Amino acid sequence: MNNEILSYLEMCQLEGVNLQKGMNYRLGGDYSVILMSLRKGAPYQDQVSEDGQMIIYEGHDIPKTEGVVDSKNHDQSDITRFGTLTENGKFHRAAQEYKKGLRSPEHVRVYEKIRNGIWSNNGVFELIDSWIENDGARNVFRFRLQLVQLETERNKIHDELPNTRVIPSHVKIAVWKRDKGQCVICGASEHLHFDHIIPFSKGGSSLVADNIQLLCAQHNLAKRDRIE
């Protein structure tokens, strides 16, 4: 469920594996998984558009297991020392094949780190582009992902309302700090969700912290689309 807050263990249980890598091509059989972070000091320069609809995801570095002392001094690679594709290579191939019309876009589930041990399910995105660019010191991969929206959700979006169900990262972090990682009704600290105070379906915005609160699963379901 989008905007669901998960512990690391819950996230791994949901995917059925221990998520040790940030990029996981076809982890779910018919979809891929990436882990991202916009927190200060994050190892990669991931970017999210203001409305949360688009992600520019940085590829990952050569693993230290390959005898690399400082991977930040090396170009990111698409091929391992054994000649197989790295995760960068797998995602890059999928994006380029899509651009050439050879396949449909890869579906990617995105989890975002909110704080240590706490993650947010940002939903499913389509991988629509990839490229290599120089960041001033080395060559890195960039991947463009676009949020998948159901047709029923698209129909709810009015042209005059700059709303989206996706809650931007800076709003999530602000709400988490303000609500102290607890349900604002009962104080529960497990099974939390980012909830729209004025529901999205009634014109509520996702772009401001004043309209977002933390609710446990029980109170989130009880509220549904009522305006409190």
State the gist of this model:
The chain is α+β, with helices and mostly antiparallel strands. It has five helices and ten strands; from the N terminus they run E-H-E-E-E-E-H-E-E-E-H-H-E-E-H.
Polypeptide structure, described:
With 228 residues, this protein is α+β, with helices and mostly antiparallel strands. The protein has two domains: 5-148, SRA-YDG (PUA domain-like), CATH 2.30.280.10; 164-223, no CATH class. 19% of the residues lie in helices and 28% in strands. The chain is built from five helices and ten strands. It has helices spanning 8-15, 87-99, 151-156, 169-178, 217-223, and strands at 5-7, 23-24, 32-36, 47-48, 54-58, 106-115, 118-134, 139-147, 192-196, 212-216. The strands form two sheets. Strands 1, 2, 3, 4, 5, 6, 7 and 8 form an eight-stranded mixed sheet that branches. The longest helix has 13 residues, at 87-99. Mean pLDDT is 87; it is low at 151-163.
